[in-house]
């Protein structure tokens, strides 16, 4: 079965080092999934191209433009996510947050995710753990232990460059393991399995409606 | 089919002049708009209910009672009545009173409001929004249908031997719509009771509206009230008209660009594409509106939003005039032409419900249970016949 990896990248300049890092991670994930005997496809969402659509969606109180609706469906139907942002003012960029703000609260439930960031200086490296990781934890995503942070100097050779490559490979391996993992739980035997949140892009209405007798129970006086 | 207006009752500065009407002006203007609606042949005026500035209609039955006294045929409705934070006992009384005063020209639309803090202001918990809507509405149905009510629920103080007064006019409870933009539970609620379902429509893409209405229709049939295409559906719409499309766009753009809710966001052109907003000639409005039935099916009530975003009262009255004189007569004719005979043209009215007599299913608190019991006894009978 082909696994679908979606990359969300919030780089602004072109060419962008954020996109460069995103591509390197995506390649490593593909290699790692393939090494486990499964095929992988990669689709990239460049948030720069969605910037005005995201703003319009926000300004209407959440009515998704067609492009935003497509991006939402793409993300929620993925088997794994790679999320990469530049560091702006000591955190993820506003554009990056805007995208995750227009997703359904259940859009990433149980989704394996690699978090990654680029910055001009290594002194921002903890942004992965104090900004990105809590965001994805809130969204009930499964964030792999290895975050990938790349300062400008990491794109050079030497020890820094080698360190970046090894972090990318390690994160990709962790993601691939989750992406190819079969859902081995036998229904009815796993406590709490029924309570897990179902992932949904929120673009289509959930027509699996609760029967009214259930809604009315205890409320009919 | 019924056509009319729904008003949010916002006090918004006119962006072209910077002038903000006073609350007194806005309240008077809502009445003028309603009177104009009747004058030009529209059927319904519905008032919002809000408990915070910049909105004025906190007390819809006062407003609608005043309008009732000045009109003859106009149906008075709400968009919406807060079933979550109002006491259902007070809703039962207020709207029964309005029903008597207006000669039965009343129906209501239940909603959960658009302002989070309204819950704590009225001592309620927003996380219980759906449960409040379910419990309060069930009590409201009982108060309008049972002469003496004993009640103990989760949210209000219990009732022992309570009789809501006045009783509904002629013993016929007002018809009820349930309005929701995106809660499937509310579509389910409307379907369960065989009530109407109204989709605001104007702030969302049409694919979404179509899904909500389809869910309601399927569940309406499931609960035995009739076939899915006989369910009672209402839609919102938003238009601005002039002699040419160019003039309409030129006049409306400053209001659109600065409107509450969607202003400073998408362009007028994008919003027109995404939502039912139509800015153009009366002919364009007719064509677009007729197209609504293509994705929600043949429906019974169309309400338009005309008086918002700071549009001056003269302009609004002119828009009502164009709508009533040039648009709605054609819409009536065309919608009737495409409607199959077995699909009701109008939503239930006081007269039509009265004519159905005291045994009509809507007199039951839960008609769906009676349908289910009938179906079972029919099954049992045919089983007996087969074995005999």
Description:
The complex is a heterodimer of chains A (221) and B (388). Chain A has 221 residues and is α/β, with parallel strands linked by helices. Chain A has helices spanning 17-35, 47-59, 66-76, 94-101, 127-138, 158-180, 212-216; strands spanning 3-9, 40-46, 80-88, 91-92, 112-119, 142-143, 148-151. Chain A has a single domain, classed as Flavodoxin domain (Rossmann fold, 3-Layer(aba) Sandwich). Chain A contains 7 helices and 7 strands. In chain A, strands 1, 2, 3, 4, 5, 6 and 7 form a 7-stranded mixed sheet that branches. Chain B has one domain (2-359): Luciferase-like domain (TIM Barrel, Alpha-Beta Barrel). In chain B, α1 runs parallel beside α11 (313-338), α2 (60-70) runs parallel beside α3 (88-102) and α3 crosses α5. In chain B, strands 1, 2, 3, 4, 5, 8, 9, 10, 11 and 12 form a 10-stranded parallel sheet that branches. In chain B, strands 6-7 form a two-stranded antiparallel sheet. The interface between A and B is medium-sized, with 26 and 41 residues.
Defining traits:
heterodimer; A: 221 residues; alpha/beta; Rossmann fold; 7 helices; B: 388 residues; TIM Barrel; two-stranded antiparallel sheet; 12 strands
**Biggest interface between protein chains, with counts per chain?**
A-B, 26 and 41 residues
The biggest beta sheet of chain B reads: 10 strands, parallel
Number of strands of chain B: 12
CATH topology of chain B: TIM Barrel
Rg of chain B is 21 Å
* Inertia-based shape of chain B: globular
CATH superfamily of chain B: Luciferase-like domain
| Tally of contiguous helical segments of chain A | 7
Largest sheet of chain A: 7 strands, mixed
Beta-strand content estimate of chain A: 15-25%
Identify low-pLDDT runs of chain A. Answer: none
Arithmetic mean of pLDDT of chain A: 92
Structural class of chain B: alpha/beta
User: Low-confidence spans of chain B: pLDDT under 50, at least 5 residues?
Assistant: none
Task: Look at the structure and give the CATH class of chain B.
Answer: Alpha Beta
Q: Number of folding domains of chain A?
A: 1
Total strand segments of chain A: 7
CATH topology of chain A: Rossmann fold
